[in-house]
Amino acid sequence: MSAVGSQAGGAFTPPAEYVEALTELVVGIGANIQPGQVVGITMQAGQEAITRAVAEAAYARGAKYVDVWLFDVYLKHSRLKHADRDTLDYVPRWVRERMLQLGEMNAARISFQGPPAPTLMDDIDTDRLGLDMMPRLRESIEVTMKQQTNWTIVPWPNQDWATMVHPDLPEADAYKKLWEEIAYVCRLNEENPTAAWEARLKTLEDSAARLTEMRLDALHFVGPGTDLTVGLLPSSRWMAGRMDTVKGIEYCANLPTEEVFTAPDPDRADGYVRATKPLLIPGSARIEGLTVRFEGGRAVELNADKGAEILRGMAARDDGACRLGEVALVDRESRIGQSGTVFSDILLDENSASHIALGSAYPFSVESAQDKARANVSQIHIDFMIGSSEVAVDGLRADGSAVPLLRDGVWQV
Amino acid sequence: MSAVGSQAGGAFTPPAEYVEALTELVVGIGANIQPGQVVGITMQAGQEAITRAVAEAAYARGAKYVDVWLFDVYLKHSRLKHADRDTLDYVPRWVRERMLQLGEMNAARISFQGPPAPTLMDDIDTDRLGLDMMPRLRESIEVTMKQQTNWTIVPWPNQDWATMVHPDLPEADAYKKLWEEIAYVCRLNEENPTAAWEARLKTLEDSAARLTEMRLDALHFVGPGTDLTVGLLPSSRWMAGRMDTVKGIEYCANLPTEEVFTAPDPDRADGYVRATKPLLIPGSARIEGLTVRFEGGRAVELNADKGAEILRGMAARDDGACRLGEVALVDRESRIGQSGTVFSDILLDENSASHIALGSAYPFSVESAQDKARANVSQIHIDFMIGSSEVAVDGLRADGSAVPLLRDGVWQV
To answer: Which of A293, B134, B263, B295: disulfide with A301, CB 3.0–4.6 Å?
Structure first.
């Protein structure tokens, strides 16, 4: 077994202690694998080493079966190049059923982030690109929203990604640098990464609790190209760090995580916003220079320097796809924000800056049954970054008065 | 995309013209992919390059969707090492459903042969090994027997396999030599590999037709350690080369193929037989020095120098698992037999020598409805080689008279 997968390449080999620490975070504080659980892994080519390490650790913790679903972006490229347009939204029934069955059996779910071959789709017509949503499945949104599974996503560097993030470095150096950055933001370089995450998660959970107590009516973002008010629901609950499944298993869905987030009122978003980072939709496209105008909760204008059609296609997929399902705040204590690196990967970039998401809301981020019924529903959930040190964030109370929340990336509360 | 997968390694890169020729055989004369078909591929780590090439060629021929199921022997090893014994026969429902759905939709199916990491399972208790049958699925036997899908299996060399076959050569040389052997036996080195296979398949199909016309009552194998009579059914039909699906799509299930085969009478096998080659059960074990005694069609004694327990476990899986479902004759025109190499891979080795199989019969290798009802049924189908230049094969007529069929590997009819 090679230490790195087929796409990793380069002369640099990930230090074994980092791979070991990441594996321990995945099966431990991340997905929190339970004895007797089935574990569903989504894997891409080049992720063999971490998949095998995680499977070994999962079985050692008592997992019943580790099931791998392979998603390969090269196969998707061949499909988008040749297949009939009318078939591009086809998903085999068993692929959908796998996800639903993982939910029904309260399985654990794991995936590894790291965009492979970022320029591969450049020769595909943009009007075809948005039609094949895989590896996204509407069933995974459903399973996630029902809190059926304990799940986590962690990054796993590959050479293509490293070269995209650090185009000016020689290949092996870029790969080494990306690994060092990932080790830093994932706290793999701490003496006890699990303890380091427990401390950080506690801080985030405390911030979320303070925001929930304020019972804000709305958030107001103001900065270059941005003047946006996002309404909240009466019982919007701010979340951070760990969550529980319906079976009471605590897990941490993203590692790293640096955000506090809640579900907005899908009928109240007004104004305009300019994305502060590019957005990479895995297996589809890179969206740059995104600007969005909202009216009464709906994204009524979606423009971009690049990739606007893709996002417009996704936002038209269903009724909820053009409304907000999440608003998240990230302060400058985030190691990802501190690194200054644009990773062009949503797991990392969304934790570098405040962001909003088109599409489905997490029902557990509202408290009342009435608000759960109002929170946004969609097949999609697409985060994009709107925060920076230049964007001020205020909380608005029901009486219209404002409370400063973030200035220059620093918490004011 | 790397030219060879993560397990391939070595300094030798498979010549692009061989990969191209193999790809063309797979989607052409092999699986014969039709426009609009779904294509199910079973892939192992290290087979990314051929999987992507085949997917591209399949989509170019009009395939609707190419679905990959990853089987990884390292994950299986972790499972066998740690998981509860009682769970080792667990197969997720969606894995079974995938196979059944491929059958129902008359999909194409493709897999690549090449044993990875042949010694990986050496530290697993042999009594656990036979419990996890994957990647074998009883559903794939069912789909195959119903002729629902056009399918093919081809070899794809990897470094571990090359090192096992040629342990005395340096790694890269072993890998290069295995590739040259595969190119020879798959006729990739011919100017027109498809035309070369069409000619060879015609010869095999003619031999099969001659044998069917003889309406033999039984076959008699005599050689060192072997004196075995295998009864045939009244309408046993000898098959070779190409077959048709229920939808009338012609395909060639194995490339290379050098055998003519039929379904025996499951109640009439008597005598003893010594395997002439080792048998590698993928993801389980290597069975060496196998001897079997049959009585009234049943394998009543199964012994081996190594791995007997595995085979005994499989032969006890159901009522048909200890009876014969196939008898096949291979003459010395076989390029595989000529190469003199023991590939320790069933796709190749079964085409080097005459063989029999425990388990399910191919219903299309008998003609009458009455015989179809009598042909053997089982979840397993395990071929093992019993032929060599020292084993004489006679046909026995209903009146008891003998007709020499093979002497010193040469057809006598």
So the answer is: A293
* Of B52, B59, B74, Cβ closest to residue A81: B59
Check B75 against A51: CB less than 8 A apart: yes
ipTM value of the model? 0.87
Phi, psi of A393 (to 5 degrees): -120, 125
Q: Quote the pLDDT of residue B3.
A: 29
- Which residue would you say has higher pLDDT here, A14 or A187? A187
Task: Give A-chain residues touching B92 at CB under 8 angstroms.
Answer: 38, 65, 67, 98, 101
Report the distance separating Cα B227 and Cα B412, nearest Å. Answer: 19
- What is the arrangement of strands in the sheet containing B324-329, beginning at the earlier edge strand? B239-240, B260-262, B324-329, B355-359, B381-385
Q: Are A92 and B79 within 8 A, CB to CB?
A: no
Delimit the CATH 3.40.1830.10 region(s) of chain B: 8-185
- For position B35, what pLDDT does the model report? 98
Higher-confidence residue of B131 and A84: namely: A84
Q: How far apart are CA B276 and CA B383, in angstroms?
A: 12
A3: left (phi over 0), alpha (psi -120 to 50) or beta: alpha
| CB pair distance less than 8 Å for B78 and A56 | yes
Classify domain B8-185 at the CATH topology level: Thermophilic metalloprotease-like (3.40.1830)
Burial B367-383 (b: 16+ CB within 10 A, else e): eeeebbebbbbbbbbbb
Q: Which of A55-59, A91-95, A138-142, B250-254 has the lowest mean pLDDT?
A: A138-142
Please report residues of B whose CB lies closer than 8 A to that of A59.
78-79, 81-83
**3-class secondary structure, B299:** strand
Which residues from B are below 8 Å from A90, CB to CB? Answer: 64-65
Structural Rg of chain B based on CA atoms: 20
The 10s digit of each residue's pLDDT in B166-224 is: 999 999 999 999 999 999 999 999 999 999 999 999 999 999 999 999 999 999 999 99
- Do B59 and A6 make contact, defined as CB atoms within 8 angstroms? no
Give the model's confidence band at B2: pLDDT under 50 very low, under 70 low, under 90 confident, else very high. very low
